[in-house]
Amino acid sequence: MNALLSFHPALLALFAGLFTWLCTIIGSAPVFLFKQVNRKFLDAMMGFAAGVMIAASFWSLLEPSLEFGKANGDTYYWLPTLIGFLLGGGFLRLVDFVVPHLHLNKPIEEAEGPPIKKGLSKSMLLFLAITIHNLPEGLAVGVAFGALATLGDSIEAMPVLMSAIGLTLGIGLQNMPEGAALSMPLRAEGKSRLSAFLYGSFSAIVEPIGAVIGALFVISMTSILPYALAFAAGAMIFVVVEELIPESQSNGNTDLSTLSLMLGFALMMVLDVAFG
Question: Could you tell me the pTM of the whole model?
Answer without folding.
Answer: 0.87
